[in-house]
Design a protein that fits this description.
This protein is an all-alpha fold. The longest helix has 34 residues. The protein is elongated.
């Protein structure tokens, strides 16, 4: 599950010159802080890892879903309109 945004914590990070220059150019282009860009990158990475974990879980259960008729018993109702 993705973290709920709340109180922020401070930390230091060391970048090489190319990374530092790139971060500075992006923050000027976007007119935002380096901290905001780093938070966005971390949020994107969290979403990416969450999606990857879901995909991995789905793939691990795919054979079971294909072969276990109890899991697909209601498939014949797909497309029916319920009222």
């Amino acid at each position: 599950m993705l973290a709920v945004k709340g109180k922020k914590k401070r930390f230091n990070v060391f970048l090489d010159t190319a990374q530092f220059d790139f971060l500075n150019s992006i923050k000027k282009e976007r007119r935002t802080s380096a901290s905001e860009i780093i938070r966005e990158l971390i949020d994107d990475l969290q979403k990416q890892q969450y999606k990857s974990a879901l995909k991995s879980a789905a793939l691990s259960l795919l054979d079971e879903y294909k072969t276990n008729k109890e899991l697909t018993v209601f498939t014949s109702l797909d497309g029916d309109k319920f009222q």
